[in-house]
């Protein structure tokens, strides 16, 4: 069943609460299909927790979770062990922007949400590692350039040049020579 088809259909709790056919004692304790549906939403102050979740939480949260799964698939979270995608942040941003009280307001990014700003002020996050921020193409360029540099440095002529430069630095004391040179230039 596709994800969209599952979202558009109402939640039938009797499927989750049904007991095996042979166990009639348990079946009598669980709610049946006749008691599950409600013609109108129950009062928020007098309804049971299950009714509140079914009528007020799930209709809002389930589309957000479906959108979260689509976004996680786009970010290739199911293919990799580590990604830069933080599902909790996405869900907070989605729920904040889909809030009916904010329907006339423009889209707000996660780090611009007021309560998120306040929380991150007191609890800063560590930076995301560069390995997670780079795209696959950028990461391959970094790896290839490092490998090419390594192969060039392994060349015998380049090794000889590096040894000569090292000896020159040690014998001539280049840093002292540069300090004297700049002291003379400043004295002029």
Query: How many runs of DSSP E, i.e. beta strands?
Result: 0
The helical percent reads 55-70%
From the alpha-carbon coordinates, what is the Rg to the nearest angstrom?
Answer: 32 Å
**H/E topology pattern:** HHHHHHHHHH
The rounded distance between the terminal residues' Cα atoms is: 83 Å
Count, helices: 10
Structural class: mainly alpha
Question: How confident overall, as mean pLDDT?
Answer: 81
* Uncertain residue segments: 5-9, 13-30
Strand content: under 5%
| Main beta sheet strand tally, sense and closure | none
Q: Characterize the overall form.
A: elongated
Pfam family, one: IQ
InterPro entries: IQ_motif_EF-hand-BS, IQCK
Protein name: IQCK protein
Summarize the structure.
With 188 residues, the protein is mainly alpha-helical.
């Amino acid at each position: 069943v596709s994800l969209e088809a599952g979202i558009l259909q109402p939640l039938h709790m009797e499927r989750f609460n049904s007991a095996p056919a042979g166990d009639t004692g348990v079946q009598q304790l669980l709610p049946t299909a006749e008691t599950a549906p409600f013609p109108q939403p129950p009062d928020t102050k007098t309804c049971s927790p299950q009714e509140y979740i079914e009528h007020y939480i799930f209709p809002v949260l389930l589309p957000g979770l479906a959108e979260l799964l689509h976004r996680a698939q786009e970010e290739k979270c199911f293919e990799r062990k580590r990604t830069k995608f933080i599902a909790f942040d996405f869900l907070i941003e989605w729920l904040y922007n889909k809030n009916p009280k904010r329907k006339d307001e423009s889209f707000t990014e996660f780090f611009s949400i007021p309560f998120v700003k306040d929380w991150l002020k007191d609890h800063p996050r560590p930076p995301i590692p560069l390995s997670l921020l780079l795209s696959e193409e950028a990461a391959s360029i970094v790896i290839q350039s490092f490998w090419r540099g390594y192969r060039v440095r392994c060349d015998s002529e380049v090794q000889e040049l590096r040894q000569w430069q090292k000896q020159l630095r040690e014998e001539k004391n280049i840093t002292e020579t540069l300090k004297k040179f700049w002291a003379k230039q400043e004295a002029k």
